[in-house]
Write a structure and sequence with these properties.
The structure holds two protein chains of two kinds. By secondary structure, chain A is of the alpha/beta class. Chain A is 31% helix and 24% strand. In chain A, strands 27-31-30-29-26-28 form a six-stranded mixed β-sheet. Chain A has a five-stranded mixed β-sheet with strand order 7-6-5-4-12. In chain A, helix 4 packs across helix 10, helix 8 runs antiparallel to helix 9 and helix 17 packs across helix 18. Chain A is globular, with a radius of gyration of 28 Å. Chain A starts with a strand and ends with a strand. The relative contact order of chain A is 0.08. By secondary structure, chain B is α/β, with parallel strands linked by helices. Chain B has a single domain, classed as Alpha-Beta Barrel (TIM Barrel). An eight-stranded mixed β-sheet of chain B has the order 1-2-3-4-5-6-7-8. In chain B, helix 3 packs parallel to helix 4. Chain B is globular. Classes of the chains: A alpha/beta, B alpha/beta.
């Protein structure tokens, strides 16, 4: 069984337990080969108990303090190639073997079993086709459940370790890498090179450090040297994966590793692709710090896809905005703190009603970011390489988003404060020139003449009808609609509600001052109070987590206490905790809703406010 | 979700069955090879007839067998078989050992009509000392054997594709139609009919590791030695249109090493002693599609295997010079059996 501690996408830092064996996941089992004693240090080892004559696998996982013997009978061709096999290896052991694809029979048996360790017996066969493998992996995890430790034997190498852990495999082994080492390869996570290896090498393993390596004898010692080197690389990469995962940055390591093999790039693209929404279910909706989004694959990270799709599906521009100003994005996040955007804001002060001017940044890969969503994840958390040339994907995202903005046709005028040379391609989707004016100056939109243009144009803008107060309220509604849904936003702001406090610390209150929700600017989310939760309950089923009636919620919510979770619950989602007919608290989900009902152990919701019965 | 579940390679029968052809009167192949008869080296004459082929290959087929591609696509008539034999006879130079294969069973009446069998046997009668043909066990009946014996004055030898004596391996890895017991039953009938029995054992069917494969064949030699006069070890070679070929293309299968074949032959010979002839004539040996080592030392190991096969003296094979690649063989063997 595994108990997730930190969840990052489909990967989890977790404590694993099978029989007597305790594991720190994700991890690599070091294969013991032939006459060698195997892995260095106190690592998990994989060896065979059997005399070689057996027509079965007699695996032994050893942690140094405990052992786990696993007996697996030989599987035939049909099962290896066509799947359709699953069985518990030893009654009551919690260790299951299976081959993919599943029939309904394996699906139902595996989903209802208490699985501690799930061994994907034909993983090597499935691994040969990347699309199939990713599809398989998604189904496998869904079927064996989030509490099973998943082992895919004989596919891990230093270069795919990050990817396979990222896709949710907890346990890999060094067997394949040692075979490759035997065949003459010096493995590195970035690539592998054939024997003879050029020197010097950046590797710090005992083989690469030793000066007499060029004089290596042929035969067994050479194999052992390459194997030692491979094991060192496995150990290094395993540590690196653990480190990046704990930092919540495994995705960045995975992207960096795709350069080693086209297959890894394919897998990442299949995973991010539209075919499965699995990656979206596992993406966090909050994040901290600014992260680089560099390679093309980064532009399809799940959180980016999620931002774009949420924008298209549930964003509504504040109604009182009567003027749209399109501006370029900025390096500084949130944009409004950047020197360029401060300049734009000053220039726009010359409008008669600056608050009804809707400043919207044009950006890749998010499409557009309206000013009231500048704090929403990942709008203040990304950094991309900027060259001024936009590829067709990037243009597509912007085009789609701008069309969405113009759909309501609420804007009387549009100012396009962008250099025409760089953004000329936007012209075809913008309305004719009497309502749309380009205010950029040559190559620049932050130069003095450009800002003067903008200020002049702003002075001519029509006057808006709303007061600044009404406008701020509408912006907040738009942000809540983006975070939850338009229905929840309407219901939360309905009736006698008032926004109080400065914009960076807004509180929404009702009646005499009961707080419904508070705005956390640095995270870009609204935090609900119990009163706020109560108010939106009837429309917030998708964000609700049902707590088992026999659980008295005092601290945080743990896996055994959960009945089920609404379909919109993601890592970082603001959720309502409902027990029977009562709202018992509000908090923040730490695992995807998809996992909540099935996890056997681990924290699932950090409870922020308890309510009702406590 | 788009279904990516493809019925994988196990049912390849349909794809490798050829269209009915007009070449019923043409034999498939003829060649001469070195053999030995009762301890004396001799030449052998080999004919492969073009027939409808093994019925099992057209139903489901074995994982490593691609011979179905070399069949007629329909049943051959008696006249066609005789015409094939007549044409082949022009290459016959009175070799004492004659082997007739059909890409299936010589005794299957759908492949070779009984009347044709008799006349084929007659064609070699008085000229050859031993006539060998191959069959599935269910066709080995006293009537069928008598039908051939009537026409041939000399020893009859029937080869059975036993492959392995482990049912698990036979069913799961080879996917044969018959059970081990059916093969052994046929071998007993041959013994009772005083026909020489030859067993083909398959080295390294798919889904076994190299080490499991070695042990499988050594074990099989031990179990087959009492029922067969000759045991021939056939290392798998990659034939077109087979499951093994698909696995091989995806790097999920490697044909056995010559070191494995050597180990099997040495350990097998120790087990059978002089009572049984233990032989191996590897197809595509020393080639990536066949039994091979590192492709540099293959020649000398193959020559040593051939010498051992013909002389039944295995000492030179034991002493054949090792190559550095033997370390890689040992290394992979010790890794492969760790996990599936």
């Amino acid at each position: 069984m595994r108990e997730p501690v930190t969840v990052d996408g489909t990967a989890a830092v977790a404590i694993g337990a099978v029989g007597e064996l305790l594991l720190h996941l994700p991890t690599v089992a070091f294969a013991t080969a032939g006459p060698r004693s195997g892995a260095p240090g106190p690592r998990l080892r994989l060896s065979s108990q059997a005399s070689m004559a057996n027509f079965s696998w007699e695996m032994l996982l050893e942690s140094g303090t405990a052992n786990l013997p696993i007996h697996l009978q030989m599987r035939g061709g049909e099962e290896m190639l066509e799947g359709g096999w699953a069985a518990e290896l030893g009654e009551g052991s919690g260790v299951w073997g299976f081959t993919w694809p599943f029939t309904d029979s394996e699906r139902s048996r595996l989903s209802s079993a208490r699985i501690d360790l799930a061994i994907w017996v034909n993983a090597r066969h499935c691994y040969r086709t990347t699309e199939r493998f990713v599809q398989a992996l998604i189904e496998v995890r869904r079927v064996v459940g989030p509490s099973a430790i998943l082992w895919a034997p004989r596919i891990g190498t230093p270069s795919n370790l990050a990817m396979l852990h990222y896709l949710g495999i907890d346990l890999l082994d060094t067997t394949e890498g040692l075979v490759l080492a035997g065949q003459g390869q010096w493995l590195y996570p970035e690539f592998s090179i054939e024997e003879p290896k050029p020197v010097p090498s950046n590797c710090t393993c005992e083989v690469c450090r030793s000066p007499e390596e060029t004089e290596r004898p042929q035969g067994l010692p050479a194999i052992q040297e390459r194997a030692l080197h491979a094991e060192h690389q496995y150990a290094e990469e395993e540590a690196r994966v653990g480190f990046f995962l704990r930092q919540g940055r495994l995705r960045e390591l995975v992207e960096a590793r795709t350069v080693s093999q086209p297959a890894l790039g394919e897998m990442l693209r299949w995973y991010d692709g539209e075919a499965t929404r699995y990656s979206e279910h596992h993406a966090s909706v909050v994040g901290e710090g600014v992260r680089p989004y560099v390679v093309t694959e980064a532009y399809r990270r799940p959180e980016v896809e999620k931002f774009r799709s949420r924008f298209l599906a549930q964003y509504r521009p504040p109604r009182s905005k009567n003027v749209l100003v399109l501006v370029p994005c900025a390096y500084t996040k949130p944009y409004r703190n950047s020197p360029t955007h401060r300049g734009f804001a000053r220039a726009l002060e010359s409008a008669r009603t600056p608050h009804t001017v809707h400043t919207v940044s044009v950006t890749s890969p998010l499409g557009v970011v309206p000013q009231e969503l500048e704090h929403a994840y990942p709008a203040r958390n990304y950094d991309i390489p900027v060259t001024g040339s936009w590829n067709s994907d990037e243009r597509g995202w912007v085009t789609e988003a701008v069309r969405r903005l113009l759909q309501g046709s609420q804007y009387e005028r549009i100012l396009v404060h962008l250099p025409q040379s760089e953004y000329g391609w936007l012209k075809e989707i913008l309305p004719p020139s009497e309502t749309c004016q380009w205010t950029g100056e040559g190559e620049s939109c932050s130069s003095k003449p450009a800002l003067a243009n903008l200020a002049r144009a702003a002075a001519d803008l029509p006057q808006g009808k709303a007061t600044p107060f009404e406008n701020r309220r509408e912006e907040s509604i738009a942000a809540v609609a983006f975070q939850f849904s338009p229905g929840i936003a309407d219901s939360l702001f309905a009736g006698d509600t008032t926004l109080r406090g400065p914009p960076w610390f807004s509180r929404l209150t009702e009646g005499k001052g009961d707080v419904l929700a508070t705005w956390k600017e640095t995270r870009g989310t609204w935090h609900l109070t119990v009163a706020g939760g109560e108010k939106i309950r009837s429309v917030a089923e998708a964000f609700s987590v049902s707590v088992n009636p026999d659980v008295v919620l005092k601290g945080d919510l743990f896996a055994p206490g959960v009945g089920s979770a609404g379909e919109e619950v993601r890592i970082g989602s603001e959720v309502l905790l409902v027990s029977g007919s009562k709202l018992v608290g509000v908090g923040e989900a730490t695992v995807p809703g998809e996992w909540m009902g099935r996890l056997r152990r681990g924290l699932v919701v950090k409870v922020r406010k308890h309510g009702g019965n406590v | 979700m788009k279904s990516l579940v493809r019925p994988e390679a196990l049912t390849v029968a349909a794809e490798r069955k050829p269209e009915p052809a007009d070449e019923g009167g043409e034999y498939l192949k003829v060649w001469h090879e070195k053999e030995s008869l009762n301890g004396t080296p001799c030449d052998a004459f080999v004919i492969i007839l073009r027939t409808s082929g093994c019925y099992w290959a057209h139903t489901r087929g074995c994982t490593m067998c691609g011979y179905a591609r070399e069949t007629l696509g329909r049943e051959a008539t008696e006249d066609e078989i005789l015409s094939q034999v007549a044409k082949a006879m022009t290459h016959y130079r009175d070799e004492p050992y004659v082997k007739i294969y059909t890409s299936g069973s010589f005794l299957d009446p759908h492949e070779v009509p009984p009347a044709a069998r008799l006349r084929v046997a007659k064609a070699f009668s008085g000229r050859a000392r031993r006539l060998l043909f191959e069959s599935l066990p269910e066709f080995v009946t006293p009537e069928a054997i008598d039908g051939v014996r009537k026409g041939f004055e000399g020893e009859l030898e029937v080869a059975l594709g036993l492959e392995t004596t482990q049912d698990d391996v036979l069913q799961k890895a080879v996917t044969k139609v018959s059970t081990v017991e059916e093969y052994l039953g046929a071998a007993r009938r041959l013994r009772d009919l005083q026909v020489l029995g030859k067993a083909y054992l398959l080295l390294k069917p798919p889904f076994l590791t190299e080490r499991q494969a070695i042990e499988d064949t050594v074990l099989s030699i031990g179990k087959a030695k009492d029922l067969f006069q000759t045991i021939s070890v056939n290392p798998v070679h990659i034939q077109g249109g087979t499951l093994v070929e698909r696995l091989w293309r995806r790097e999920l299968y490697r044909p056995p090493w010559l070191w494995s074949l050597r180990e099997v032959l040495l350990r097998g010979k120790e087990s059978v002693g002089d009572a049984v002839r233990l032989v191996s004539f590897p197809t595509s040996g020393g080639n990536p599609r066949g039994v091979h080592n590192c492709l540099t030392c293959d020649g000398r190991v193959l020559r040593a295997i051939e010498r051992a096969t013909l002389s039944q003296d295995f000492e030179p094979l034991r002493k054949v010079a090792e190559c550095t690649c033997i370390e890689r063989w040992r290394w992979e063997n010790s890794l492969e059996y760790l996990a599936p």
